[in-house]
Write a sequence for this structure.
């Protein structure tokens, strides 16, 4: 059902004995978790409002932190917020949709902000699956480091040759790891380690 912002505000454990919170415009009854969400609980700031952004930032002590607006956060962070909402759906009773609000209009239909959020989550899921498939295809190097001898990376004989692999996520941030490739080739995103021969299995 649809829950108005005014109704959500009343369920603060004082005006109404129950504790409700919203994340991504989805309202949950968290009364059974009173020791966490009650007045003395560490998550009391989330109650009676939609503070979605704070689930990522941890800033639930100010109105600026406790906001439903997640603009500017990377796709991976939005996927994590979706996983938070899924946690509440598994562990707490879902009351309904907050409407009107940031994520649903007065009829409970998705707003442009919700559609943008869902699209970003799908991008993040696709990227995560692609990275996992790449990591399985080209396994990580083995590595060790000591203060005396420095760092060392290597690939077992059947795993290939160690290379510094450079990729970028949908947010443009670089991802660097040591991966084992089955051939001696190298490129802009598959680099040799300094001082390491192309056919070396240990660098």
């Amino acid at each position: 059902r649809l829950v108005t912002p005014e109704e959500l505000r009343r369920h603060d454990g004082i005006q109404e004995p129950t504790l409700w919170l919203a994340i991504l415009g989805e309202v949950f009854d968290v009364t059974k978790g009173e020791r966490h969400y009650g007045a003395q609980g560490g998550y009391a700031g989330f109650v009676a409002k939609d503070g979605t952004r704070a689930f990522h930032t941890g800033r639930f002590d100010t109105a600026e932190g406790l906001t439903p607006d997640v603009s500017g956060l990377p796709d991976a962070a939005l996927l994590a917020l979706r996983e938070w909402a899924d946690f509440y759906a598994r562990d707490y009773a879902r009351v309904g949709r907050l409407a009107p609000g940031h994520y649903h209009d007065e009829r409970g239909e998705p707003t442009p902000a919700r559609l943008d959020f869902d699209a970003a989550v799908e991008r993040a899921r696709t990227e995560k699956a692609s990275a996992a498939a790449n990591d399985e295809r080209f396994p990580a190097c083995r590595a060790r480091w000591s203060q005396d001898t420095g760092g060392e990376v290597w690939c077992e004989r059947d795993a290939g040759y160690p290379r510094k692999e450079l990729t970028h996520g949908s947010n443009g941030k670089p991802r660097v790891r040591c991966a084992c490739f089955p051939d001696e080739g190298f490129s802009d995103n598959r680099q040799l380690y300094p001082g390491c021969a192309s056919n070396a299995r240990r660098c």
The first strand starts at residue 2 and ends at 3. Residues 160 and 182 are 4 Å apart (CA to CA). Residues 112-137 form the longest helix (26 residues). Helices lie at 5-10, 34-37, 54-57, 75-91, 112-137.
